C-alpha cells in the first residue's frame, strides 16, 4: 500500500433565481483523471524552489479569514473552486456587479487577461498524471424558458471548459438527481448529495455547479501505520482530546515565521506538483493570530526562507466535512450586487417572457478532507534520514493549526483549512437568515488590500515611489526628482558602510545583505542608463571626489569603478571656490548644460573630505509626436486657484491605457522613440478627494511598476497633456531620515569600508533635477550630490490631464523609474527646496 493523503472534494454550487421574471445560462469544467500513484519514487533529494511569479491568492486568504472569524470549529474551503464558479458569473455581469466581482476577487484588469489567467490554471490542473488524482469540472444548468446568449455560452466553453445545459428546472426532483449524480461522479463518490433540499430549487432558473477532487500520495511515504500513536491534542489551554498522531523522523522543508509567530512545514505529494503546508502557531491560542496576519506575501517570503532539515514530525490524523453558505461572507468582502435586485447579469441570457433581473439566491460550498497514513512502511523506511535530534527540530502539531494545499507550479491554492479539533467530523456556516445591506449603503464600503508579491528587483524599485511619497508630503507645487540618480549614489555608498549604517541603507533600498546580489542589481539598473537609439538618449555618470590626504580603501575604490561605473577624482576642498567650479563644470558637461550647478557659492565646506556626484541625463523623442498646431490654451484646474489657462498638447492615436482600480486613477503610457522608455501619467479619478495627490503617491507604493505596465492595454485615445517645464533643487536628507536612513548623517555613521583612520558622516544629500516636456518629446536631467565631512558638526476615450497628476519616466525592460514627479500647475516652472 502507498502512504496517501486524500483530499475528498471541494465543490461550489450557486442557485440563481428570479423573483418575477428570469434570465439564465450554464457552464461545465471537464473532469480529469483520477489515478493513484503506483510507481515508487527513488529520488533522495528534492530541490524545492518556491513559485516566483505574481500570486493570484489575495481573495483566497481574505475569504478564508472572514470564514474563520465566524466559525469556531474546523474550517475548510477550496478557493479555486469558489473562484471558478464566481468568474462564470463575472463573464455575464455588467456595471457595478462586474466591478464588485473584479475588485474583490482581485481579477486582472481586463477580461482577456482574466480568461488567460483561469485558462492557464485549468490547463495546469487538468494535466494527466499517474502519481495523483485530480478531477475538476463545472456545469451551468439553465431553465428551458431562458434563452442563453450564444456569446456567453461560447466564452465559458472556450476559456473555462464549461458546458451550458438546458433543463426543466421546475422539475426540482429531476434536476436535483442530475446534479447530485454529476457531483457524485466528479468526487469519486465522496459527496453523494449536493442538493438535499429539492424545495430550495423552486423558482430557480440557473445553477452553477463546480466540483474539485484531489487524491495524492505523500512523496516520500513518511508515515508508517505502526508508528501512529494516540496522544493529547490541546484544543485550548483548558481542554484536550486524545487523537491518533502520525509520526516520522525525516527531512522536510521547514521555516520559522516571525510575522505569523509560527512554524511552517511543507509535505510534498508524488508528482512534484502539489504540497501541503501546515502552519503551526508557537502558542496554544496562536491560530487566531495566524488567521489575522496570513496573506500570500507573508507566505511567499517565508517560503523563500525554507530550509531542508531533519525533523521529528507528529501530525494528527483528521477527517471532516464542512458546508458553508457564502452570501454573508461575500457581502462582507464587497460582493453585494449579485444578491440584490440591482444585479446586472444581462450578459448571460435573455428570456422568452418579460423579465427584469437575474440574481443569486445562494452560494453553497461543501468540502471534505481526510489525512491519514494509509500505505506500506517498506519504501518509507529507506527514506528515513535521522539527524541529531534537537528541540528546535520537532514539529508537533498538537494544537490548532492552519493548512493549505497548493499547486506549486502555478501557486494555485486548492484548499485552505483550520484544524481546531481533529475529532470533529463536520461543520457548517449555515444559511444566515438576515437582512444584508445593499451596495448602496454608505457604511458598508469594503476596502480590499492590494499588496503585491515581488522579486528582489521589484523591491529595489519600491525605493523610487517611497522617495517620491516622502518628498510629496513636504513640498507644495510642482516637483521633479530622479529616483535612479539618488539610488545609484546611495547604493554605491553601501559598499563602504558597516554595522547599523549599512543595515539602514539596505532596508531603505530594499536590498538583500549579500554583495553579489547588490552588485548584480546595480549593474542591471545601470545598463539601460547609457544608450543612444532612434533619437532618444540616456546617459549616467558617477564620480567620487576625494581629498588627497585621505587614506582610502582600495577595495572600495575598485568596487565603485567595477560595479557602479564610478570614476574617482582627487580634489582639494580647502580651496572651496576652485573645488566648486570643478564640480559644477562636471555637472554641466554630463547634463548637456541643462543643470548649471549643484554647488552654490559659499555652500561647500572647507572640511569636506568626500563628495559623490551622480548625474542622469535623458532626452526622449515621442514615438508619436504631438502636432504643435493642435496645442492651445485650455483650462488646468489648480487646487485653491481654480481654472488656469495653460498650453495643452493633444493627439489622437493608440496608446496603452487603463483605469487602475487599486489606485483609483487613470494611467496612460506615452512611449519614446527608442522602444524601451515611456512616460507614465497617473491621473486620479476624483480630484476633489485628493487635490494634492497625497493618497495617490501612497497607493503607488503598493503596486510594483512591473505590475502596472502589464495592466495597460492598447486603446484608441484622445490624449491631452500640458506642456510643462519643472526644475527642483531638493535636500533629500529629511525624506531619507523618515525612511529610516539615520546613521549616515550622525555621529554613529560607520564608513569603515571607505577609509581606515578617520570618522565620516554625510553632511547633506542634494539633488538638482529638471524636466521639459513639449510636442517633440522630453528633456530631463538630474544630479545627486552626497557630501561627506569629518564627524564633528551637526469618442475615443479621452485622457485629459487638466488637473494635478503624477508622472514617471520608466525603462520598460527593467521597470526602473528614471524620473518621477508631480505637476500641480504647469504655468509654474521652477521650485527650490533646501
Give structural attributes:
Antithrombin, Chain I, domain 2, 834 residues, disordered C terminus, 35 strands, single chain, nine-stranded mixed sheet, alpha+beta
Question: Describe it for me?
Answer:
The protein has 834 residues and is of the alpha+beta class. Among the domains are: 317 residues, Antithrombin, Chain I, domain 2; 235 residues, Antithrombin, Chain I, domain 2. It has 19 helices and 35 strands. Strands 2, 7, 8, 9, 10, 11, 15, 16 and 17 form a 9-stranded mixed β-sheet that branches. Strands 19, 24, 25, 26, 27, 28, 32, 33 and 34 form a 9-stranded mixed β-sheet that branches. The N terminus and C terminus are likely disordered.
Helical percentage: 10-25%
| SS content category | alpha+beta
CATH class of the domain at 4-37 and 54-218 and 317-434: Alpha Beta
CATH superfamily descriptor of the domain at 4-37 and 54-218 and 317-434 = Antithrombin, subunit I, domain 2
Which CATH architecture of the domain at 4-37 and 54-218 and 317-434 is right?
2-Layer Sandwich
The N- to C-terminal Cα distance equals 75 Å
Main sheet overview: 9 strands, mixed
The radius of gyration computed from the alpha-carbon positions, rounded to a whole number of angstroms, is 31 Å
What fold name stands as the CATH topology of the domain at 4-37 and 54-218 and 317-434?
Antithrombin, Chain I, domain 2
Which term fits the overall shape? Answer: globular
Q: Round the mean pLDDT to the nearest integer and report it.
A: 75
Keywords: Glycoprotein, Protease inhibitor, Secreted, Serine protease inhibitor, Signal
Pfam families: Serpin
Family: Belongs to the serpin family.
Protein name: Serpin domain-containing protein
Amino acid at each position: 500500500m502507498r502512504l496517501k493523503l486524500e483530499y475528498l472534494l471541494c465543490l461550489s454550487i450557486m442557485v440563481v433565481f428570479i423573483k418575477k421574471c428570469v434570465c439564465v445560462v450554464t457552464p461545465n469544467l471537464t473532469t480529469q483523471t483520477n489515478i493513484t500513484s503506483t510507481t515508487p519514487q527513488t529520488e533522495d533529494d528534492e530541490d524545492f524552489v518556491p513559485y516566483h511569479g505574481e500570486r493570484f491568492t489575495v481573495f483566497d486568504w481574505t475569504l478564508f479569514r472572514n470564514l474563520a472569524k465566524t466559525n469556531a470549529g474546523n474550517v475548510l474551503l477550496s478557493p479555486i473552486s469558489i473562484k471558478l464558479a464566481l468568474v462564470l458569473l463575472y463573464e455575464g455581469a455588467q456595471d457595478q456587479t462586474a466591478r464588485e466581482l473584479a475588485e474583490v476577487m482581485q481579477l486582472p484588469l481586463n477580461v482577456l487577461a482574466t480568461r488567460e489567467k483561469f485558462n492557464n490554471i485549468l490547463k495546469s490542473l487538468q494535466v494527466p498524471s499517474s502519481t495523483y488524482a485530480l478531477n475538476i469540472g463545472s456545469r451551468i444548468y439553465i431553465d428551458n424558458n431562458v434563452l442563453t446568449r450564444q456569446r456567453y455560452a461560447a466564452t465559458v466553453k472556450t476559456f473555462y471548459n464549461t458546458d451550458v445545459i438546458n433543463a426543466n428546472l421546475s422539475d426540482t426532483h429531476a434536476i436535483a438527481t442530475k446534479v447530485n449524480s454529476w457531483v457524485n461522479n466528479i468526487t469519486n463518490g465522496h459527496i453523494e448529495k449536493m442538493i438535499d433540499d429539492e424545495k430550495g430549487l423552486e423558482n430557480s432558473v440557473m445553477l452553477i455547479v463546480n466540483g474539485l477532487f484531489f487524491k495524492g500520495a505523500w512523496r516520500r511515504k513518511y508515515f508508517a501505520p505502526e508508528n501512529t500513536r494516540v496522544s493529547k491534542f490541546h484544543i485550548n489551554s483548558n481542554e484536550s482530546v486524545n487523537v491518533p498522531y502520525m509520526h516520522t523522523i525525516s527531512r522536510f522543508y521547514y521555516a520559522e515565521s516571525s510575522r505569523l509567530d509560527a512554524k511552517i512545514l511543507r509535505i510534498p505529494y508524488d508528482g512534484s506538483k502539489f504540497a501541503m503546508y501546515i502552519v503551526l502557531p508557537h502558542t496554544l491560542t496562536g491560530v487566531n493570530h495566524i488567521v489575522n496576519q496570513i496573506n500570500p506575501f507573508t507566505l511567499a517570503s517565508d517560503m523563500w526562507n525554507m530550509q531542508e532539515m531533519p525533523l521529528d514530525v507528529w501530525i494528527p490524523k483528521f477527517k471532516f466535512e464542512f458546508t458553508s453558505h457564502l452570501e454573508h461572507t461575500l457581502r462582507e468582502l464587497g460582493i453585494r450586487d449579485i444578491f440584490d435586485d440591482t444585479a446586472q447579469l444581462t450578459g448571460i441570457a435573455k428570456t422568452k417572457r418579460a423579465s427584469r433581473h437575474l440574481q443569486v439566491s445562494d452560494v453553497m460550498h461543501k468540502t471534505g478532507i481526510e489525512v491519514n497514513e494509509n500505505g506500506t512502511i517498506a519504501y518509507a523506511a529507506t527514506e528515513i534520514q535521522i539527524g541529531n535530534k534537537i528541540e528546535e527540530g520537532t514539529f508537533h502539531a498538537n494544537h490548532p493549526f492552519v493548512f493549505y494545499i497548493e499547486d506549486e507550479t502555478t501557486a494555485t491554492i486548492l484548499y485552505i483549512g483550520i484544524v481546531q479539533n481533529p475529532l470533529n467530523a463536520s461543520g457548517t456556516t449555515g444559511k444566515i437568515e438576515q437582512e444584508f445591506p445593499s451596495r448602496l449603503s454608505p457604511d458598508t464600503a469594503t476596502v480590499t488590500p492590494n499588496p503585491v508579491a515581488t522579486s528582489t528587483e521589484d523591491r529595489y524599485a519600491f525605493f523610487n515611489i517611497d522617495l517620491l511619497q516622502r518628498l510629496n508630503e513636504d513640498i507644495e507645487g510642482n516637483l521633479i526628482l530622479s529616483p535612479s540618480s539618488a539610488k545609484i549614489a546611495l547604493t554605491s555608498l553601501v559598499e563602504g558602510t558597516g554595522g547599523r549604517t549599512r543595515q539602514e541603507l539596505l532596508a531603505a533600498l530594499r536590498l538583500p545583505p549579500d554583495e553579489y546580489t547588490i552588485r548584480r542589481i546595480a549593474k542591471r539598473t545601470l545598463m539601460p542608463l547609457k544608450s543612444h537609439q532612434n533619437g532618444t538618449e540616456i546617459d549616467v555618470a558617477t564620480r567620487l571626489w576625494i581629498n588627497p590626504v585621505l587614506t582610502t580603501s582600495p577595495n572600495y575604490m575598485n568596487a565603485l569603478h567595477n560595479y557602479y561605473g564610478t570614476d574617482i577624482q582627487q580634489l582639494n576642498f580647502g580651496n572651496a571656490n576652485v573645488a566648486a567650479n570643478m564640480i559644477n563644470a562636471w555637472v554641466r558637461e554630463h547634463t548637456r548644460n541643462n543643470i548649471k550647478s549643484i554647488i552654490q557659492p559659499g555652500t561647500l565646506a572647507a572640511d569636506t573630505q568626500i563628495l559623490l556626484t551622480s548625474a542622469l541625463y535623458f532626452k526622449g523623442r515621442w514615438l508619436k509626436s504631438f502636432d504643435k498646431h493642435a496645442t492651445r490654451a485650455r483650462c488646468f484646474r489648480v487646487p485653491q486657484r481654480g481654472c488656469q489657462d495653460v498650453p495643452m498638447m493633444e493627439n489622437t492615436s493608440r496608446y496603452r491605457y487603463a483605469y487602475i482600480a487599486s489606485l483609483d486613477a487613470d494611467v496612460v503610457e506615452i512611449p519614446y522613440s527608442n522602444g524601451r522608455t515611456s512616460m507614465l501619467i497617473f491621473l486620479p479619478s476624483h480630484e476633489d478627494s485628493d487635490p494634492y495627490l497625497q493618497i495617490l503617491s501612497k497607493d503607488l507604493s503598493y503596486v510594483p511598476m512591473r505590475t502596472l505596465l502589464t495592466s495597460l492595454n492598447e486603446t484608441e485615445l484622445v490624449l491631452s497633456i500640458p506642456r510643462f517645464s519643472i526644475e527642483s533643487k531638493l535636500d533629500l536628507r529629511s525624506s531619507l531620515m523618515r525612511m529610516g536612513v539615520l546613521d549616515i548623517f550622525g555621529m554613529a555613521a560607520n564608513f569603515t569600508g571607505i577609509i581606515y583612520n578617520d570618522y565620516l558622516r554625510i553632511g547633506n544629500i542634494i539633488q538638482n533635477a529638471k524636466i521639459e516636456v513639449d510636442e517633440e518629446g522630453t528633456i530631463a536631467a538630474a544630479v545627486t550630490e552626497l557630501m561627506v565631512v569629518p564627524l564633528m558638526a551637526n469618442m475615443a476615450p479621452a485622457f485629459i490631464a487638466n488637473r494635478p497628476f503624477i508622472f514617471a519616466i520608466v525603462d520598460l525592460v527593467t521597470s526602473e523609474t528614471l524620473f518621477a514627479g508631480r505637476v500641480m500647475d504647469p504655468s509654474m516652472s521652477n521650485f527650490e527646496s533646501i
